[in-house]
Design goal:
It is built from 12 helices and 51 strands. It is mostly beta strands and 793 residues long.
């Protein structure tokens, strides 16, 4: 007998084959779908939390911002009398209950009876009566659908009690004090064995992309910091942000409603009831908060600093918001940060660990250990920290190239290229601070800046670029040290001359310049000179600088730098100062001189005197070869050995005594023929003129002598009052003189004036005060000597 199962399977063999293939495909598809996430994530080493490389930020910038914030907190006041007075008499709460009930009892409807009678007259007729009764369905009373009101919430004033408000404001003030102390930073974090302690700002960029499997979890980022070359631990100063929160409004509404009805015999009974309640409050939902954890040190190693941030789901979401967070931490490693500390960077070891932990939204707490497989930890790496001295040394402004061009009639556009031109960079030029576009300073980027400054400011050679870090950099081309080795370096003494123009109102000043060696022309190194005559500054477009042949010998070529400008002739009459400056080349390219008017004021003095010769010094103008001096004979500069040049504005003449005795004046003649007569110095000091200081005092009708104090009073030869001579006697040192008065002088009270006369007729006044009382104690009468001195001395 054949096997029925076998027969059943063999008969539809093709169908059985299709069934087996379909089953295999379905199993394969299910396995593929189930294994798809594992195949996509098999090479994934991330858990959805990525921490970028730690970066070191400028602690001084943070400190400046903290100081500004601290200043704003200092002026904040929260204990407000007005608010406290307004809070008196307020209601702190109310409760409203809203319950509605309905009971309805009604009878059943009365049946309707209809009687029909036959239409017959005089005879009895049958009648027909029909009773109609409508259907009755039990219905509950209508429910209360009103929304309810809270009239007292409108008419009454609700708020915090005055005492509670005071406590709240005091606590808030204390929190401000706490925050200010935190911002000021503790002494422990600023002191290291009596020296400043290094503080560094570390920044971390955290990227969150939560996978689906970590739904309902919070992301945790832990940072572990260890010092590299010290056994002392690293201190945590501050973390930013400390927390990030949201204010969320939560509204809960509950409505319970019940209704029922029934027909009891001949009546209908219905009942309904509703309970309604609302709760409204504000809650704080925390997205981010910082933490610090204690961790025991390993044997032989310092205690690690462990801190981090937790990122939680907010606003009824089940997952952390994806995105990037930038967080900062201020640490104080055990590193000396004094001015004398090492400039090399100090290092700390930094490692990051990330994981996910389950988050209970109802209790707003994390629970349990990290999710399995979510912990990811990177290897520790050394991070270089900048000390103050190292930061100033490495990031100070450095100049590479400087150029300038004319801007307007008296301005200059300066362009500077270099390194470390950070925000906050400024310039000092000509005693003026330039730091923003309003005063001509434009910071293009970290390597390029421009400034507009008066042309005169560049002539002082005092420009500085004050970077954000380090010492100011001089506005001098950095290649100057190499250029100084050249023979064409620097500016020598200028050769200045001027000629009157045909209109006689203006004159042309010519300035010729050689290098410091006096032979080669100066090399300006692609810069342009600025010429200043008196108070007027001439840009290159007006002075027309150029290299020309400056040799007096037409057969010889000697190039120099020549500049020519036109000025009012009256300017030259005051011997105005002359300045030549080539910007950005330093003090060797800045000279100060005067434009002399030839032979306007020439003087002679005795320099020294030998046994048989006298040496005279003649100065006051520029002296060139060809100048002649007429004394006992004619002397010519450059030819006569007796007349030599000491400097360009001083010459020396040596003449025998016997030849100079007959000379009363000198004549100095310029090469162009202009002559000036000057007196010959005698060599004897001029006597000082006498002078009387103070006022003498005597009484009315006194004929005693009074003393006058002064200097060089021995030169007085005569004393008179209203033309009448008075007797007098000078003191031995010449610092006093005694005058003997007559009754004519002291006849009445008041102030009179006596006149002393010198040999050359100079009058020296002396004031005398005459009073009615006795003379003051400081003035004692002097009796006339028995033998009165003569007026002749």
């Amino acid at each position: 007998m054949p096997n029925p199962l076998r027969h059943r399977c063999l008969r539809p063999r093709r169908l059985c084959r299709y069934r087996n293939l379909s089953l295999a495909l379905r199993v394969t598809t299910i396995l593929a779908i189930a294994l798809l996430p594992y195949s996509l994530c098999g090479n994934e080493s991330q858990n959805g939390i990525s921490v970028g490389q730690p970066k070191v930020f400028d602690n001084r910038s943070l400190q400046s911002m903290v100081e500004q914030f601290e200043q704003s907190l200092r002026s904040t006041q929260f204990v407000n009398k007005t608010d406290l007075a307004g809070a008196i008499g307020t209601y702190q709460g109310s409760r409203v209950s809203d319950i509605s009930r309905s009971l309805e009892i009604t009878s059943l409807p009365t049946p309707q009876i209809v009687t029909e009678a036959a239409a017959a007259s005089g005879n009895l007729a049958p009648t027909k009566q029909t009773t109609t009764e409508s259907a009755v369905s039990p219905k509950p009373p209508a429910a209360d659908t009103t929304s309810g009101t809270l009239p007292d919430a409108v008419t009454k004033k609700y708020g915090i009690a005055a005492a509670d408000l005071l406590d709240e404001q005091v606590n808030l003030t204390y929190q401000i004090f706490n925050l200010r102390m935190l911002l000021e930073r503790s002494l422990t974090d600023r002191n290291l064995g009596g020296k400043p302690r290094l503080q560094s700002v570390l920044g971390f960029q955290i990227s969150l992309d939560p996978p689906r499997k970590y739904k309902g979890c919070a992301a945790v980022v832990e940072i572990r910091v260890l010092p590299v070359d010290s056994k002392d631990p690293v201190s945590l100063v501050a973390m930013m942000p400390q927390e990030k929160t949201y204010n969320v409004a939560s509204l809960t509404t509950r409505v319970n409603q019940f209704g029922a009805s029934a027909i009891v015999k001949v009546v209908q009974v219905g009942y309904s009831e509703r309970h309604r309640g609302q709760t409204f409050f504000l809650v704080k939902d925390t997205d981010t908060y910082a933490f610090e954890r204690d961790e025991k040190p390993q044997a032989g190693k310092p205690k690690p600093l462990v801190f981090g941030w937790i990122f939680r789901p907010v606003l009824d979401r089940t997952a952390v918001d994806a995105g990037t967070r930038q967080v900062f931490a201020v640490i104080a490693p055990p590193v000396d940060d004094s001015f004398a500390s090492e400039t090399k960077a100090q290092k700390v070891s930094v490692a990051a660990k990330t994981y996910w932990v389950p988050f209970d939204r109802k209790t707003a707490t994390t629970k349990g250990a990290p999710r399995r497989g979510s912990v990811q930890g990177g290897d520790a790496s050394d991070l270089a920290l900048f000390t103050a001295s190292g930061l100033q040394n490495d990031l100070s402004a450095k100049l590479h190239e400087l150029q300038w061009s004319e801007s307007g009639a008296d301005g200059a556009l300066v362009t500077v290229s270099g390194d470390h031109f950070y925000s906050g960079t400024s310039a000092f030029v000509g005693g003026t601070v330039l730091d923003n576009p309003s005063n001509g300073f434009v910071l293009k980027d970290d390597h390029y800046l421009q400034m507009v400054t008066p042309l005169r400011s560049l002539t002082y050679q005092d420009g500085r670029i004050n970077g954000r870090y380090g010492f100011p950099a001089n506005l001098i081309d950095p290649k100057v040290e190499d250029w100084k080795k050249s023979n064409h370096w620097g500016l020598g003494e200028p050769q200045t001359s001027w000629t009157a123009n045909p209109d006689r109102l203006t004159s042309t000043i010519t300035v010729k310049l050689f290098a410091k060696d006096g032979i080669a022309p100066p090399d300006l190194h692609d810069q342009q000179p600025i010429l200043t005559v008196g108070t007027q500054v001439f840009p290159p477009s007006r002075s027309r600088p150029g290299y020309v042949n400056c040799s007096d010998d037409p057969k010889k070529v000697q190039k120099c730098l020549r500049m020519q400008v036109e000025v009012p002739t009256e300017v030259l009459s005051s011997e105005v100062p002359l300045d030549v400056s080539v910007p950005f080349l330093g003090p060797d390219y800045h000279i100060h001189d005067f434009v002399f008017t030839p032979f306007r004021s020439v003087t002679a003095v005795r320099l020294r005197e030998a046994d048989d010769a006298i040496v005279l010094g003649i100065g006051g103008t520029q002296f060139k070869d060809g100048v002649r001096v007429y004394a006992d004979k004619t002397y010519e500069l450059g030819k006569s050995k007796e007349l030599t040049s000491i400097s360009r504005d001083l010459i020396e003449l040596k003449v025998a005594k016997k030849d100079l005795d007959s000379v009363k004046q000198l004549v100095v003649q310029s090469p162009d023929g202009k002559a000036l007569v000057i007196p010959l110095p005698t060599g004897k000091p001029e006597p000082q003129k006498p002078s009387i200081t103070g006022t003498a005092q005597t009484s009315v009708n006194s004929s005693s002598g009074v003393n006058f104090a002064g200097k060089n009073l021995q030169a007085i030869k005569k004393v008179t009052f209203e033309g009448e001579a008075l007797q007098f006697q000078p003191g031995k040192s010449g610092e006093s003189i005694t005058v003997y008065l007559t009754r004519k002088v002291t006849s009445k009270a008041g102030t009179v004036e006596l006149l002393g006369t010198t040999e050359d007729g100079t009058l020296i006044p002396a004031r005398l005060v005459i009073v009615d009382t006795k003379p003051a104690s400081g003035t004692k009468p002097v009796n006339k000597p028995a033998d009165q001195p003569s007026n002749k001395n």
